[in-house]
Amino acid sequence: MWTDVMTGEFLGTTFMILLGGGVVANAMLRGTKGAGSSWLMINAGWGFAVMVGVLVSTSTGSPYGDLNPAVTVAKYLLGVHTDELKVARMMLAELLGCFMGAVLVWAAYYPHGRRPETRCASARSSVLIRQCPTRRPMSSVKRSRRWCSSSPSAAWSTAR
C-alpha cells in the first residue's frame, strides 16, 4: 500500500538525485554549459539539491524528510520511527526515488555522453582514459621518480 510518507520520500529523493547528479554531469561532460567547472559549483549544487529534496519531501507528505535509508534506519534504532513496516516502506520509496532520479539524469545527459569528443571536461577526469589522454612519456616518469626519495643524496645518486 502506497502512503503519503512514501510519496514524499520518493519525490524528495528523486529531486535530490536529479539536481545533484545533474550538476555533476554538467560539470564533467563537455558540450554542456558548465563543462570544466570547479568543485565549488558541484558542492553548491549538491547543497541546493539536498535542500530542495527535503523541501519537496516534507511538502508532499513526509513529515521526516529522511531522503536516505541510512538515516531512516538510524532514526528507527534511536526510536524516532517505531513501525518496522513503515521503515521498510520508506526505505523502498527512497531507493526507488534515487533510481528514478538517476535515470532522469542519464536521459537528460545521454546525448553528451554518446559523442567520444565530449566524454570528459578536464584532463584530470577519468571517465574514459582513451578519450582523455593524461599519460606522460616514459622518460619523464623515470626522471620524476628520482625526486621521490627521502634523502637528497639518494636522489642525486640515482640521477647519475
Keywords:
160 residues; mainly alpha; 6 helices
- Helix-strand string: HHHHHH
Radius of gyration (Å)? 23 Å
Number of helices: 6
Q: Structural class of the helix and strand makeup?
A: mainly alpha
Estimate the strand proportion: under 5%
Low-confidence stretches: 123-151, 154-160
Fraction in helix: 55-70%
Q: What is the global morphology?
A: elongated
Count the beta strands: 0
Largest sheet: number of strands, sense, barrel closure? none
| Alpha carbon gap, first and last residue | 75 Å
Q: Calculate the mean pLDDT score and round it.
A: 80
Can you lay out the helices and strands and say which pair or pack?
Blueprint: H1 4-28, H2 39-59, H3 69-78, H4 84-114, H5 138-145, H6 152-159
Helix pairs in contact: 1-2, 1-4, 3-4
Summarize the model shown.
With 160 residues, the chain is mostly helical.
Structural commentary:
The chain has 160 residues and is mostly helical. The chain has 6 helices and no strands. Helix 1 packs parallel to helix 4 and helix 3 packs antiparallel against helix 4. The longest helix is centred in the middle third of the chain and has 31 residues.
